[in-house]
């Protein structure tokens, strides 16, 4: 009888299965092992405390002379959100330039910076730049970097794969359960598939504008509960860390941006659970409508694409996003987020 596949596993060096495994291991070697996700179940953080926040965008020169220099090229991806920027090096920006970056991110919602040296800076310098935009959130459950809990590491094989869903689309606004959720957010790619692995983004400001004035009026003044409980339970079930007890926070359904004054919907399927003061069915009904509205309105969606050196900066207060699970599992996608927290959301 011919040997079975399993019989051949420990075969000679030219064994095709052993070769394939070795090749797979090689493709899975991270280019930046320093940022390999680190999980310490013993790591604990105290509850977050309210801090005073002044958005750096309020100090910015609207002309943005320190951000957009004569070598800078910008190209809008959609009228509503997203601009690709080349010729500006984030690492070289002065304090004024960083202030202008906050304003530009608020205006365009999403900025895709190409050819950045950001990933090759020292981690302390990366943190220093991001900290200009607010104290950096330390994620309660995700992979971080040993000794640097400010980094949130995007898992090489995203956890949303698997389960019994038809697709992996999962619209959310990062950690919106925090009392002071993130504002200007940084995401830099370390390894990416040749094709695929984009991030979908949408404008929550345009989502709000599309509603009728009567419906807008009904939403204003409402508050919704954003919950960290499921995320913490998911981590616990897998033996992962829960560094801080999960919080549930009420936020306005429509919030106002502190720099631009723009109104935006502030609900997301990832973390928004119920509308305060509504009965269960009423809350379900309205949230389902809003989740459908934002997820189906492709005319204010864009895709952020990645190339080596890409740094994506977005305003978490005005957008929702989702990963795309459209590349083969064996291909490494490795990215890191720095997530400065902003103001207590201002109701419309
Ligand atoms: Fe996210």
UniProtKB/TrEMBL annotation:
Q: Which UniProt keywords apply?
A: Dioxygenase, Iron, Metal-binding, Oxidoreductase
Cited SUPFAM superfamilies: Clavaminate synthase-like (SSF51197)
Q: Which residues form the TauD/TfdA-like domain?
A: 74-339
The highest taxon in the source lineage is: Eukaryota
Which InterPro entries does the UniProt entry name for this protein? AtsK-like, TauD-like_sf, TauD/TfdA-like
Family, per entry: Belongs to the TfdA dioxygenase family.
Q: What is this protein called?
A: TauD/TfdA-like domain-containing protein
What is the protein's species of origin?
Marasmiellus scandens
């Amino acid at each position: 009888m011919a040997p079975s596949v399993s019989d051949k596993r420990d075969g000679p060096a030219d064994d095709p299965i052993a070769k394939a495994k070795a090749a797979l291991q090689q493709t899975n070697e991270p280019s930046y092992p320093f940022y390999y996700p680190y999980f310490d179940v013993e790591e604990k953080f105290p509850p977050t405390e309210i801090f005073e926040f002044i958005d750096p965008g309020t100090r910015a020169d609207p002309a943005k002379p320190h951000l957009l220099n004569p070598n800078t090229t910008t190209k809008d991806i959609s009228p509503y959100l997203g601009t690709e920027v080349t010729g500006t090096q984030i690492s070289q920006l002065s304090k004024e330039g960083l202030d202008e970056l906050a304003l530009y991110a608020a205006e365009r919602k999403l900025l895709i910076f190409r050819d950045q040296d950001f990933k090759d800076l020292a981690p302390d310098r990366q943190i220093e730049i991001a900290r200009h935009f607010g104290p950096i959130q330390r994620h309660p459950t995700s992979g971080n970097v040993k000794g640097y809990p400010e980094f949130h590491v995007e898992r090489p094989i995203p956890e949303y794969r698997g389960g019994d869903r038809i697709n992996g689309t999962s619209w959310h606004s990062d950690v919106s359960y925090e009392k002071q959720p993130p504002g200007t957010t940084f995401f830099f790619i370390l390894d990416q598939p040749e094709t695929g692995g984009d991030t979908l983004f949408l404008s929550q400001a345009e989502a709000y504008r599309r509603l009728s004035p009567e419906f807008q009026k009904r939403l204003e003044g409402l508050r919704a509960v954003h919950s960290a409980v499921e995320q913490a339970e998911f981590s616990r079930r897998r033996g992962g860390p829960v560094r801080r007890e999960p919080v549930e926070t009420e936020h306005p359904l429509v919030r106002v941006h502190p720099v631009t004054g723009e109104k935006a919907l502030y609900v997301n399927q990832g973390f928004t659970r119920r509308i305060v003061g509504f009965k269960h069915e009423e809350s379900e009904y309205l949230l389902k409508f809003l989740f459908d509205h934002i997820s189906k309105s492709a005319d204010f969606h864009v895709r952020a694409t990645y190339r080596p050196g890409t740094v994506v900066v977005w305003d978490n207060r005005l957008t929702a996003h989702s990963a795309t699970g459209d590349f083969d599992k064996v291909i490494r996608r490795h990215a890191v987020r720095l997530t400065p927290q902003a103001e207590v959301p201002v109701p419309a």
